[in-house]
């Protein structure tokens, strides 16, 4: 019996060699082996690795088998020609029998399992060939298994095989590389490829292996072809030569459209059965990839579409876009109609269609990104031509935190006053007040003005303008949380939630749930927050679309809960998912993802990576033209949190004092709506910096005041953190109540599920030493190493004293630094003394 991994018996030829830079696909190999089906059918366009996967599968066989590999090369063979190839492989004569019987006789009674590979089975075989294979499958020879790669599903009795459990089929979506395999291939072919080009290549090819290889071959510095388009040559030989002229011309046209369907094709080619033409392209596996699970909408694979677009004239492409535009608008698919109008060079029509979008459109799918992209392509005169267009753009800019642009949009609404009737005049003014109220709230410079505008807007907005009504209620609730009156938030949210439900808007219900979750987090009701978060995921799941904006925000809030509970791996997964979705729709809420990653890196002692996350956050905000003060404060705050974990307290106080000035005096700012605890957390860090610099009395005064404020606001989690900082300060001042205060705070943190605090603050007894009964931050060995470090011993001296190697001492030191959130041993000693880990 062959050893595992040994190539099976092949007679008389060998298996084809695997391609250079082969990327193994063990999951698919296991999938092919999981079901002992008589027929394994791999049906996909050219270049999806069908033959390579069959090769890899056969190489993985551990039992002795006879492999007969027939490369049919897509040629329409007669049964007699197939028999001749098979007989030549077996070194036997063709039996003098009818073709179907001769085929069965050649394959029967071999004394061992037989794998017959029909590689690249023809798409248009003679009827006799299909009938011959069909009869072979119907007889079900017990030792025979077929592996067939094909670009068009053959006309065999596949339903019978499926019902009998004798068919295992893989299509293009299953054969496509996943992102990890894509990266493996790029790394082997062109390891110096930039991250931007890798991302572009992934978006263009979507796991199409051949597309990646051909693209990178053209870009390779050693390529003698320079910028020769290998992809076009490949498509000529492997796709277009197999299509009729009519089918090829249809494909050239579809390459210009973002999505296609049989109905759209019928509309575009009424005189030549467009629907049938499209169905033939699908059957030919002409790289029309499904966009939905119902098989209604498709699009030409982007890399293929890009290579084929030049095949029709610009005038023909314009006529195509206009025709598609009419069809999309008739079907109510406004976004697609707008895109087609822009492609056809008809911005007036695009602006006209833009006015038809519904009130919740902005918050769904990736529509925010679409609006921002259209703004860059439409003339400003058109965007400002009607109040409705101005309002739509203003709301999009507010959601994007591009407040200066939003303010300019809102100001231009005044150009449309007065309106012809008093009713329309009042409606326009109410919409202006709603926009201005939300803008003022986001700027955070005048609480009273924000509340005034929102409340007056609510008084005059008509019931059918429910979107600005909901934004006003949400802003009032968020202003209440950010301005020190959180008890006022709940009534606003309750009223808004009722309106959203009456309108049947799942999107706005989830948007308001995000505000409710924020309020629960402030109060420390983490269990209720998690339940509401899960309910919100379920609500979004009821929609057929993928709502990236809402899903991204939900995942980022989920990550925050994971961080509170000290579940770093789950937090990182949620942060990555949320960030990806936020990027897709250009949602500035991505800022929270970068903040979370920076916090996660700092907890792991990866301080350089933490700062890199913060720098990337700032870069993204710049690129998206986000108003500076919407992100600068929280970035500075998170930067100070990283510094605190490093023990670099001397750098914290100047930053904290600069931030504090914004929230003091007669013209003080309100906290950012998306980070209502910013000024309070800034004070906490400032007090801790004072303590670390030896000014414990100053720290005590600030922490006492801060604690009273947090308790009055019922910000329970933050009050816990302040109590722990105050207990540390009392330890430094020698107060007898220090241990009791710390014990009470840790017990409350434990009840709340704030494992992150329990990790950062070990429980201390009245003598200031760590309470072993409650578990400590450092192991006994780590504490011994730390004690010797504090006494000035070198690594070699510590190793000799504790009878361990120098490398082991270094390992312990790294773990101590990581657990204490510092970089250097001197910082570790200082931090340990503050926590009572050293006597």
TrEMBL record:
Keywords: DNA-binding, Transcription, Transcription regulation. Residues 771-836 form the HTH luxR-type domain. Transmembrane segments: none annotated. The keyword DNA-binding applies. CDD domains: LuxR_C_like (cd06170). It holds the Pfam family TPR_MalT. InterPro entries: P-loop_NTPase, Sig_transdc_resp-reg_C-effctor, TPR-like_helical_dom_sf, TPR_MalT, Tscrpt_reg_LuxR_C, WH-like_DNA-bd_sf, WHD_MalT. The keyword rRNA-binding does not apply. SMART domains: HTH_LUXR. This is LuxR C-terminal-related transcriptional regulator.
């Amino acid at each position: 019996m062959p050893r595992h991994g040994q190539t099976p018996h092949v007679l008389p030829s060998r298996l084809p060699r695997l391609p250079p830079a082969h990327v193994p696909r063990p999951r698919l190999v296991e999938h092919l082996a999981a079901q002992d089906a008589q027929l394994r059918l791999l049906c996909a366009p050219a270049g999806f690795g069908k033959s390579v996967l069959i090769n890899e599968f056969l190489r993985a066989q551990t039992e002795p088998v006879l492999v007969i590999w027939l490369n049919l090369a897509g040629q329409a063979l007669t049964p007699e020609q197939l028999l001749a190839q098979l007989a030549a492989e077996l070194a036997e004569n063709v039996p003098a029998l009818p073709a179907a019987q001769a085929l069965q006789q050649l394959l029967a009674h071999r004394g061992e399992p037989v794998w017959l590979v029909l590689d690249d089975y023809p798409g248009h075989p003679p009827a006799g060939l299909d009938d011959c294979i069909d009869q072979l499958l119907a007889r079900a020879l017990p030792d025979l298994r077929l592996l067939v790669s094909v670009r068009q599903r053959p006309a065999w009795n596949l339903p019978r095989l499926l019902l009998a459990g004798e068919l295992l089929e893989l299509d293009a979506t299953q054969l496509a590389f996943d992102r990890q395999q894509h990266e493996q291939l790029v790394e082997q072919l062109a390891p110096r490829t930039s991250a931007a080009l890798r991302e572009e290549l992934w978006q263009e090819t979507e796991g199409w292996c051949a597309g990646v290889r051909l693209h990178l071959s053209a870009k390779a510095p050693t390529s003698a072809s320079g910028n020769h388009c290998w992809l076009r040559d490949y498509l000529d030989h492997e796709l277009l030569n197999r299509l009729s002229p009519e089918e090829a011309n249809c494909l050239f046209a579809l390459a210009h459209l973002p999505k296609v369907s049989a109905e759209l094709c019928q509309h575009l080619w009424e005189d030549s059965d467009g629907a049938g033409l499209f169905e033939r392209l699908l059957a030919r596996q002409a790289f029309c990839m499904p966009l939905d699970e119902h098989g209604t909408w498709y699009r030409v694979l982007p890399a293929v579409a890009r290579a084929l677009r030049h095949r029709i004239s610009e005038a023909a492409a314009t006529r195509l876009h206009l025709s598609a535009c009419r069809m999309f608008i008739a079907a109510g698919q406004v976004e697609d109609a707008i895109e087609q109008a822009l492609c056809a060079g008809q911005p007036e029509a695009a602006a006209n269609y833009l006015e038809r979008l519904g009130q919740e459109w902005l918050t769904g799918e990736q529509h925010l990104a679409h609006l921002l992209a259209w703004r860059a392509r439409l003339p400003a005169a058109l965007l400002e031509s009607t109040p409705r267009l101005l309002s739509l753009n203003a709301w999009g800019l507010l959601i994007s935190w591009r407040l200066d642009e939003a303010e300019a949009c809102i100001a231009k609404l005044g150009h449309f006053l007065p309106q012809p009737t008093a009713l329309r005049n009042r409606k326009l003014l109410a919409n202006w007040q709603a926009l201005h109220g939300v803008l003022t709230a986001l700027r955070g410079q005048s609480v009273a003005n924000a509340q005034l505008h929102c409340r007056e807007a609510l008084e005059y907005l008509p019931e059918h303008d429910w979107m600005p009504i909901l934004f006003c209620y949400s802003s009032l609730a968020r202003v209440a949380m950010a301005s020190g009156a959180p008890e006022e938030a709940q009534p606003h949210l309750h009223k808004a939630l009722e309106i959203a439900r009456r309108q049947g808007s799942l999107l706005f219900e989830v948007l308001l749930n995000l505000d409710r979750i924020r309020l629960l987090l402030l109060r420390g009701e983490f269990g209720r927050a998690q339940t509401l978060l899960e309910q919100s995921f379920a609500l979004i799941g009821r929609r057929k679309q993928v709502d990236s904006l809402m899903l991204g925000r939900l995942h980022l809030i989920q990550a925050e809960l994971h961080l509170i509970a000290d579940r770093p791996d789950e937090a990182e997964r949620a942060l990555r998912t949320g960030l990806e979705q936020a990027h897709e729709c250009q949602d500035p809420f991505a800022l929270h993802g970068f903040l979370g990653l920076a916090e996660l890196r700092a907890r792991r002692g990866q301080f350089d990576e933490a700062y890199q996350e913060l720098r990337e956050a700032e870069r993204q905000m710049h690129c998206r033209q986000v108003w500076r003060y919407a992100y600068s404060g929280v970035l500075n705050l998170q930067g100070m949190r990283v510094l605190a974990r490093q023990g670099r307290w001397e750098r914290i106080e100047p930053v904290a004092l600069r931030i504090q000035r914004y929230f003091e005096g007669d013209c003080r700012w309100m906290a950012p709506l998306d980070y209502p605890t910013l000024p309070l957390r800034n004070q906490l860090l400032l007090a801790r910096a004072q303590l670390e610099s030896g000014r414990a009395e100053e720290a005590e005064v600030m922490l006492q005041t801060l604690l009273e404020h947090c308790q009055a606001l019922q910000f329970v989690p933050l009050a816990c953190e302040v109590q722990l900082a105050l207990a540390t300060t009392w330890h430094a001042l020698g107060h007898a109540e220090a241990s009791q205060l710390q014990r009470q705070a840790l017990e409350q943190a434990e009840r709340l599920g704030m494992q992150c605090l329990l990790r950062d603050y070990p429980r201390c007894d009245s003598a200031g030493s760590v309470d072993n009964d409650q578990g400590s931050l450092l192991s006994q060995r780590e504490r011994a190493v730390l004690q010797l470090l504090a006494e000035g011993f070198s690594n070699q001296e510590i190793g000799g004293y504790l009878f361990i190697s120098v490398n082991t001492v270094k390992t312990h030191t790294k773990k101590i630094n990581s657990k204490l959130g510092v970089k250097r041993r001197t910082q570790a000693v200082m931090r340990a003394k503050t926590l009572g880990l050293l006597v």
